[in-house]
């Protein structure tokens, strides 16, 4: 009994220390961002476009709008696909051979580095299209979202009591009504949480966009053209030689960090 208590105490202590270490580094990063970049956040960052290299001022308007376009289109592609895939696994496929393959592939894709996804989409979409584009970037981000949504929706729908399904079937409801009117309604809070988690997962991605949507100095929102995004712009400006670029990079880092935190908290 005494050994068990000692083991429990050691395990609890290690877990607590690990949690505090993680929180410390998170707090340190946030404080550093605020200290070095908060005073560069102003209305011009959101309302003005980039200026010529070396000039003072300018903003991230085009990059912010580009980020919203790429992430929004990726969400339109990835979220419905992932939800339908999760519904199939939970309600139709269950433990069939095909379902097990989908689950294994989905689990494997969640651990693939995002840069590999970017290279894959580069070969599959960018090269045949003859150039970087919004649609290529959106496809890359959607591929990062889909396995997360599939696995999470599958697990969430399994938590819905079977008694609810059986009661709906007993009333003569067809399967699609049971799924969308009973099961999905019961799991709506979890589904919304999964959507927010998936968006936060792709919001700060840079590597796949370097190979797909790349970057642009011109304001264009065409799906078949490259576009500036906040993550790639932040990377370019941070690596640049100009102080004005560094200031905007810090501002972009703050915007991205707090956007991701907001989605995770929500």
Architecture overview:
This protein has about 270 residues and is an all-alpha fold. It folds into two domains: about 1-40; about 45-265, MetI-like (MetI-like fold, Orthogonal Bundle), CATH 1.10.3720. The protein is about 75% helix and about 0% strand. The chain is built from twelve helices and no strands.
The CATH topology of the largest domain is MetI-like fold
- Gross morphology is globular
Q: Which CATH top level class of the largest domain fits? A: Mainly Alpha
- Mean model confidence by pLDDT: 91
What pattern of helices and strands is seen along the backbone? HHHHHHHHHHHH
Tell me the β content: under 5%
What is the structural class?
mainly alpha
Give the low-pLDDT segments.
Answer: none
Compute the number of strand runs: 0
Rounded Rg: 22 Å
Tally the structural domains.
2
Q: Just name the CATH architecture of the largest domain.
A: Orthogonal Bundle
Could you tell me how far the N terminus lies from the C terminus, measured between alpha carbons in angstroms? 42 Å
Biggest sheet details = none
CATH superfamily of the largest domain: MetI-like
Helix content: over 70%
Number of helices: 12
């Amino acid at each position: 009994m005494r050994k068990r208590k000692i083991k429990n105490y050691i395990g609890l202590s290690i877990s607590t220390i690990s949690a505090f270490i993680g929180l410390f580094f998170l707090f340190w990063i946030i404080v550093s961002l605020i200290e070095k970049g908060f005073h560069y956040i102003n209305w011009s960052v959101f309302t003005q476009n980039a200026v010529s290299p070396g000039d003072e001022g300018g903003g991230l308007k085009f990059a912010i709008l580009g980020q919203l376009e790429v992430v929004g289109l990726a969400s339109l592609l990835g979220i419905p696909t992932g939800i339908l895939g999760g519904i199939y696994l939970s309600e139709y496929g269950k433990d069939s051979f095909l379902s097990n393959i989908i689950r294994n592939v989905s689990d494997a894709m969640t651990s693939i580095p995002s840069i590999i996804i970017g290279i894959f989409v580069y070969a599959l979409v960018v090269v045949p299209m003859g150039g970087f584009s919004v649609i290529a970037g959106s496809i890359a981000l959607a591929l990062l979202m889909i396995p997360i949504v599939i696995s999470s929706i599958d697990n969430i729908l399994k938590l819905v009591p079977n008694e609810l399904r059986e009661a709906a079937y007993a009333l003569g409801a067809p399967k699609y009504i049971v799924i969308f009117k009973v099961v999905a309604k019961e799991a709506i809070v979890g589904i919304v949480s999964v959507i927010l988690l998936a968006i936060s997962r792709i919001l700060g991605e840079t590597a796949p966009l370097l190979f797909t949507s790349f970057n642009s100095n011109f304001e264009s929102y065409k799906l078949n053209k490259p576009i500036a995004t906040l993550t790639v712009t932040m990377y370019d400006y941070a690596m640049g030689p100009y102080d004005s670029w560094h200031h905007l990079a810090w501002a972009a880092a703050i915007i991205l960090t707090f956007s991701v935190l907001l989605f995770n908290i929500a």
